[in-house]
Amino acid sequence: MKITVPLLILSASLFGGCSTITSSEMQTVTLSARTQGGDAVDQTKCTLKNDKGSWTATAPGNVMIRRSAEDLNVECKKDGMSDGFLRAISRSAGSMWGNIIFGGGIGAIIDHNKGTGYDYPNDLRVLMGESVTIDRRDEKNSTKQDVAGAAAANSPAAY
Known about the structure:
It is a single chain. This protein is an alpha+beta fold. It contains 5 helices and 10 strands. The strands form 3 sheets. Strands 3-2-5-6-10 form a 5-stranded mixed sheet, with no helix packed on it. A hairpin with a 6-residue loop joins strand 5 (about 70-75) and strand 6. It starts with a helix and ends in a 6-residue tail after the last helix.
């Protein structure tokens, strides 16, 4: 019994998935701007903001932002076009739950404060002239649907 408790504590610390150790405070996202018809809009000036900071970028491109529990707001401007607005929902990363379950919550508090326990959607597609909200959960669902659709298309029944 004496060996079991230290072993449990050691296991929790090794396998808890602490985001502070395994994840960066920063996240690189892909930023693009499109017309309502779906055409790419180049050289669009965008501002990305959350409670941890503000970043400027030109779409299309990649931008490194600081993770946060707060949503990310994106505003893009291009001469001759209506502005585009996007809100990217911040979602807790899987390692955050590991901290809560195995680490007693201390790691989760640290990850929450640093922002390392959260992720934004990887692909930020701003529609000029519109205000949209995107969620990382939708990325996962569309990936599952894409994989299921590809598997169905390649099945013998599809031929």
